[in-house]
Each structure stands twice: as C-alpha cells, then as structure tokens.
Amino acid sequence: MTENTNDMEAAVIDANVPAQPNVLKKIAVVDDQLFSLKRKDLAGSDIDFFEDRTSEELAELWGIIQKQKPFNSLEDTSDDEIQAFLNTDDFIEDVLLSEVFDGEASQNLKQKFDHFFMLSTTAKKHKEIIKKVFPTSEFEVEYLGVRPQNPKVLLNYEFIMLDLFMNDSVTTIQDLKDYLKKLATSARTSPIPPIVLFSSNPSLSENRKSFSKAAKISSAGIYILLKADLLDTNFADVGLALIYKQLTAQIDVANKMRNFIKAWVSALNNAKSRAEENLWNLDAGAMQYIHYTAVTDNDPYDEHLSELISREYSWHVESNPKVRSTLSKLDNSLFDHLESVDGNKQIKNHFVVPMEQKDSRNLISHFTWSGLTLPEAFNNFPENKTLISINKLIPFGALLIDKNFAEAEKKVALIHITQQCDLNDISRGDFDKSLTFVIAEANKVENHKISQYNSQDLVAKSLKINDIEYDFQFIKGRLLCLPVRQFLQYSKEHEYKVMGRLRHDIASLFMQATVNEMLRPASQKLDRSVVIKGKIYLRIPNSNEPILFVEQGVEKVFQLYKIKSNSYSFYDSDSNDIGMWLKVQGNQYNSDLFKDLDVYGLSQALMKPRKNGAIVPNIEFKVMPENLNEATAKARGVATRQNTIIFILIIEPES
C-alpha cells in the first residue's frame, strides 16, 4: 500500500521549458500490520464461535458475509466452505474492515473482535502520525508487508522504518540482525539510509546495543522506537519528525564511522597474522634475553612482554593505509559539525546515539589501567623475599589501598612512582634505597554524581575496587617516601594491598607531576564536566502556575552536565524529550509563542552548555538553586512576562 502524490511544483523558467516535477523523498515503512491486517491478527480475539454453526454470532456474521460475497445461506453451506473462507485474508479485508460490517454488525458481534479492532485502530493512528511527519507534498511513503528479499532495494529510500516481527511468527531479533548485516554488506562503502527499528516488543530496546555490532552499522544511523512511544502525546509526530531530522543530519558521519570501523577490524585481523608471524619467527635467544633482563632485575616479565607485543600489534593497525584513509575522512566529516563561537570551536550538531556513560568510561579505564594480573599480596612473604622481588610485588604504577579504605570518609590511595633504576638497585641488594609513592584521592563515581576536574588536574579514571568505581586524583605536594624496610613494616601495620596497575606511560605522568607539581595540559585531556540533578518548569504568559515536567505521572528529576563556568547541558535523549514536551505544551495552551518552535533547534541548543539567557527566540533560560523538594515554590516565585516563555531549571545545590 503506497501513499502517492501527483502534485507538481510549478518551476517554469521559460514558456518553452516544461515544468519540473517536485522530487519526492522516498520513505519505506516495512511493517506487515501497517501494510494490511491479516487473518493471523485475529489471534487474541474471541472467535470460538467460528466452529459453532448454531451460534447466533456466526449466523449474524454469515448474513453480513452474504451481502458482500456470493455464498449460500449458512444452512446450505458446508463446514469446510465456512472455515475455508473465515481463515482467509479476504475475510479480514473484505468483511471485517468493510463499511458494511461497521454499519450493520451488532455491538455483541463487534465485541468478539475487540482485540483485532484495537490493532486496526492503533495501525490507523500510527499511519496518521507518519503521514503528518511525511506529507505527500514532500515525501512518498511506501508501506511494505514483507522485508524485500534483496535488502539492497532499501538503499533506494532516504529513510527506513523497519518492524521487528513480520508475518512469519518465528522471526527473531537475530533474523533482523542478519537482515541488517546483509543490507550493510550490499551498501559496500556507500551511505546507508537512516533506520528506525520499530516494534511493539520491548525486547527491541533491551537489545539496542547489539544491533550496531551485529549489523555492522554505526549506532549514529540506527534508532530504536517502540510503537507505544509513537502514540505517546509527548512524542507522536513531533518526536518522529525530530528523529528524522537528527538521523538525517548524521548520515555522513554514520557512514564514515562505519567505513572506519570496518577498516580497523580488517586491520586488526591482518595485524594478528603479521604479529603472529613475527612471534613465530622471533629468535628464541631474543625472547630469552628479554626474560633474563626482567628476571635479573626482578621486574615483572608480563609487563615487559606485554609492552613489546601490544606495540607490535598496534603498529600494524596504525600503519594500515585503509585505516589512515578512513580515519582522515571521518576526521573531515566530524569537522563539518563544528562551528566557531567567539574564536573557540564548539559542536554545532550533537549526535544522538545509544551510548551509556559506562561505555565511554570503560574506554578511558582500559587506556589508563593495565589488564595484567595483579601481583601476589606482598605482606604475606618473608621480608627477605619481598626485598629481592620488590619490582614484581609492587611494580611501578601499582595502586595500593589500606584496610580502612572502604570505611574512610575521605579515601586515599598510594601510587608507586619509584624510579625504575632505584627499584632495580633494591632488587639487587641495595636495601637502603627508599620507595616513593604519590598520594591520590579516591572519588567515587556514580550516575548522578561525577566529580568535576579542571585542566590542571591529573586523574587516573575508572578503576573498580570491590565492584565500586573510583577516579584517583593526584594531590599536589603529598608524598610518602620511606626506606624500603621501613615501608614494609608500615605496610603490614596498615595492611596495604595492590588493587590496580597503571600503564607505564600513565604512571610516568604521576611521577612527572610530582617533580613539576603540575601536568602539562596537552599530556592528558580530562573530562571537565560534573553531573548534578534538577527539575524543569515553564512559566507561560498569563498562566497562574508553573508547569512541571512530568513523565508517566511522576515528577522527573533530570541529570545534567555542569562545566566549570556554571553552564548546564542536558543529555541528548533528555533534550529531545524536553523539546517535544514544549511543543505539546504549546499545543495545549494555544500559545502563539510556540507556533513556530523548532524542536530540532531547541534540542540541539539544550545539548550545549547554557547559562541564563535566551535559548531560542521567545524562550528564556533561568537557573535557580534550591532543594528539589521546594522546587515548585521557587518556580512559582518567578514572574511571567509578555511574549516570553521562561524555562526554569531548579538545580540541587552542590554540597
């Protein structure tokens, strides 16, 4: 079923030049229920009476069928003929969905098909919303009842809405992943249209993170949308239009990202082969010498070998021409989404992707902390064995905590930064040498509370200790430096143990910071945002009460980023919800101020750090600290102004 248009936009330049047709953007909606309801959709309806020739409901239904189909009376029609027709899709299309049934069927008979008509009504609402977002003057919306056997067909569309479960009831999420993978393969290096995965099944959202990897499609090109959300008054056509605009803006970057990852994965496989070849051909004498050097200095052999092999592996990836080429193209594409504001670069279009904080923090953690095995508990060994094995038991970059760490109000840890040559001297018998440790403050990481750091702070991020995640911040001017024997005694008293190993280059930064008492800004770029909580309200001209953002009947508490200059920004999904909420409020209050509200522009504006002042025309941003339990009273005290909507953000005061 296709929604076509024959409208033409007059573009006559010369009387002899024929008018050029308006080129419509093609939208594919692959959904069997939106295409047409079938006999299978009667599942869930009360149709046991189909099998009972004596039922009043079947007699009434057959009478309606006779008015539209050349059947004999019920008495003169065999059971096989009755069941054969009632089990066809024609029965659905020509009878149940007909005007005759709607006009003549009794309420009792209609109630037997309540579930079916609920599906029909829902499908109509979905199509109405889709039509509103994609008007026939600009778009050609084509509904497909089955996925095209050749996924390449979908590359001819500019936007795709793809249902999870189709006619085949055994279709699974894995089937959809396989289909999307074929689509990506057929696209080769060409852009893939934005894809909205569309379903009434909540398992779609639960699997959102696995689609990109399985299908080999950038997460910037896929959006998960539950059908129930599309009918939510706070989403509906405004939300779908916003998603269309956002995904369309991300097409080029999504494609460049996909090509880069493909090249990178291919290079990894090649690097595996090249590194393996080098290892097999490496002279055993060279390996023996590496081992001998580590053992004679009592250094960790695993660290020696890991550094050599990982860099050999990385070199083959870094030198791969295709990786360099695709990375350069991605770099250029991302530059297109930057703008210069007061001489500084800022993000112009923030991408909407299903990324979680823990994903980005895991990346930082793996960059900062070694995955090598932690050494044995050094306090369990006799002193003489500990002395000669100090490099192995407390390696350079080891992070140590004491027995009171978990209970301490202000948690600190030791980071071992004794110079390597001094460690080697100790392991050779110079037991008068000292061990040097940096004191680092442990800051607990929580979803609603991430500590703020500035560009001068040196922080080793994201180490889990007993399933709790911490950042470890360098404290200037605080060191622990003790002769090795004295430290071992001190350690036994406090029951110190190694809980992590910084990578060698990161540990060197802490050693350098100790010497310089500052970190060179370019050495490590730090996340400077802090997460706080807040509520939002609207004050609309001539309204008595502030309007609170409510989600499913509950006051919503937002998480916001705060940066050093006291500017605030919302997460991408929250900014979308707020933009759609504002549009809905405008429709409800019939305010002319909302008439031309650009939801996409507002959403983008809310993702950027903001202070008090205008967000978009007619909307003013106002930040107010207050206990969230008293937020409504605080918002009520904000005076309304003509021709201005005041967007109030009540933030919880920082402790």
What are the segments in which pLDDT stays under 50 over at least 5 consecutive residues? 1-15, 518-523
The average pLDDT score comes to: 82
The count of β-strands is: 23
Radius of gyration based on Cα positions: 33 Å
Give the DSSP E fraction (strand runs of 2 or more residues). Answer: 15-25%
What's the main sheet like? 7 strands, mixed
Output the structural class.
alpha+beta
The backbone outline, from C-alpha atoms, is: globular
Helix segment count?
25
First-last Cα distance: 60 Å
Features:
655 residues, alpha+beta, 7-stranded mixed beta sheet, 42% helix, disordered N terminus
Describe the structure.
The protein has 655 residues and is of the alpha+beta class. It contains 25 helices and 23 strands. Strand 7 and strand 8 form a beta hairpin. Helix 13 (251-281) crosses helix 15 (301-318) and helix 13 (251-281) packs antiparallel against helix 16. It is globular. The two termini are 60 Å apart.
Summarize the structure.
The protein is built from 25 helices and 23 strands.
Question: Topology, please?
Answer:
Layout: E1 2-3, E2 25-30, H1 32-35, H2 56-66, H3 79-86, H4 89-96, H5 99-104, H6 107-112, H7 114-133, E3 139-144, E4 159-163, H8 173-187, E5 195-199, H9 203-206, H10 208-215, E6 222-226, H11 227-230, H12 236-249, H13 251-281, H14 284-296, H15 301-318, H16 321-335, E7 338-341, E8 344-347, H17 357-368, H18 383-388, H19 390-393, E9 398-401, E10 412-416, H20 420-427, E11 434-444, E12 459-465, E13 468-483, H21 484-494, E14 497-501, H22 504-516, E15 530-539, E16 547-548, E17 550-551, E18 554-555, E19 558-563, E20 567-570, H23 572-589, H24 599-607, E21 613-616, E22 619-625, H25 631-636, E23 645-651
Parallel strand pairs: 2-3, 2-4, 4-5, 5-6, 22-23
Antiparallel strand pairs: 1-3, 7-8, 9-10, 9-14, 10-11, 11-13, 12-13, 15-16, 15-19, 15-23, 17-18, 19-20, 21-22
